Amino acid sequence: MIVLLGVLVVIIGFATRRNPLLVVGVAGIATGFLGGLSPQKVLAAFGDGFASSRAVTIFVITLPVIGLLERYGLQEQARNLISRFAKLTTGRFLTLYLVLRQGFAALGLRDLFGPAQTVRPLAAPMAEGAAERRYGTLPDKTREKIRSFTASADNVGLFFGEDVFLAVGSILLITGFANSTYHTHLEPLQLALWAIPTGLCALVVHGGRLLRMDRTLERELLGARVELATQEAAK
Amino acid sequence: MIKAEWFYWLVGALFLVMAAQMAADRTNPKRFGTAAFWGLLGAGFVYSSWVVDKSAPAEPLGAAVLVMICLAAFGFTGRGKPRTTTTEERRASARKHGSKLFIPALTIPAVALVCAVLVPKLSFGGTPLLQKGSETILGLGVGAIVALVLAMVMLRDKKVAAPLHAGRSMLESMGWAMLLPQLLATLGTIFAVSGVGKQVGIITEAVLPHDSVLIAVVVYCVGMFLFTVIMGNGFAAFPVMTAAVGWPVLIEQANGNAPAILAIGMLCGFCGTLVTPMAANFNVVPAALLELKDQYGPIKAQLPTAVALLGCNIVIMAAFAF
Lengths: 235, 322
Known about the structure:
Chain A is built from eleven helices and no strands. By secondary structure, chain A is mostly helical. In chain A, helix 6 runs antiparallel to helix 7, helix 7 packs across helix 8 and helix 8 runs antiparallel to helix 11. Chain B is 73% helix and 1% strand. In chain B, helix 2 runs antiparallel to helix 3, helix 9 packs parallel to helix 11 and helix 11 packs antiparallel against helix 12. Chain B has a two-stranded antiparallel sheet.
């Protein structure tokens, strides 16, 4: 029971917005000790964990070329390009991105898109550019919101697309666990098929929310402008 | 054969070179702490190769990770003033180069696609060109290098230091968030070794009523969701919740369709991943990359979708799995 205190450390740490690295470090050490590990074992656990999880950090390899292109105006050009397509509003563009992301993930191509290689340099500036064309300069709050929703389209598309592909980690984990623990025989294909209904729901729910963003932006930004105009008029 | 470990060495070398740049950057008031943090990260990337194949002890690496945590958590890292172009210069450059700028950026996914789909079919004298099972991540690496060369040729920028400085200032702006995903994976392992999963399973079993299938479905789905929120990924939650509820109650007692229950159970975990800062590589790192003031911005954007999809999963499982 007492090992659950480590979980409590994490929840309190994140809730009070302490530095996440510190929270996770302290929780790891505390849980290790409460679970009866020796200090040496705890150190080894940190080392082993770091070594075996390096794959999540390799996107760094794309930063030099993305950074170089950004110096030469990549984000600005992404904005320019999108402004040529008058029908492509922020919501429609993000829905399109969601569809592409989910479709490619379902084909097993999960590393094609991602926060470093597509969201920051291309998708987020395009989503912002589409809104700027309609409403002019955006307030910071709106800019943050559009960027957050771009990141969300990337995640939702990935998560609920990849399980439709047979050879993805989570499907293999399920078959591996069930077949070895319960001596049954599950095929990856059976599991992948059952990921399709939820995948469609994800497309409808998140796509719908992205499309609705256009109306929210219109209300918020035009509202703000009307307010500004009335204030001007009152002077 | 090109091995995945070589690619990790390249990433490690990149961190080390950038750390050297940071140490020399006088515009950064905390340049030595910053350089130490990224230098340790780079050295750790290389040293890890021997930890993975068990030919070197993991303890020194663990100690290095703890030092990195302290450097970042107690404010020894900072960022320099990036030597970069102004917005005006960027606009002018965008007008000059036009959509040509997209070519290198799109080269990365294009090369990754080729590496993932076509290259595994190639082999030289029986050995595949790229290490089996690592084709996509190697593709990302190869794509990034090809794209960089292409960009430098196209833009006629001969200074090798320019992309390194540009990448480094992106690293500095992301800061400690870069280390968080790896650290959380570590925490997951420690949780597993210490028996956190087992405890959660015991609690779940204690509160579980054994007579209603519908309630058991809800407990399994919501349990996967909550446990994933705590652990940061569904992979840790799945064996625990399945052993406690999924298999014994839903599949054996209630005679449910095993592939449906297990697949949808895992997807409930994915809903949890959408809303937890513990899944830092999906939720916190993008916020840092996009330079958001609110590091929980993506989570807030995903929360309604996650809750709705959890509901969908419960309905689908209850309606079609029995």
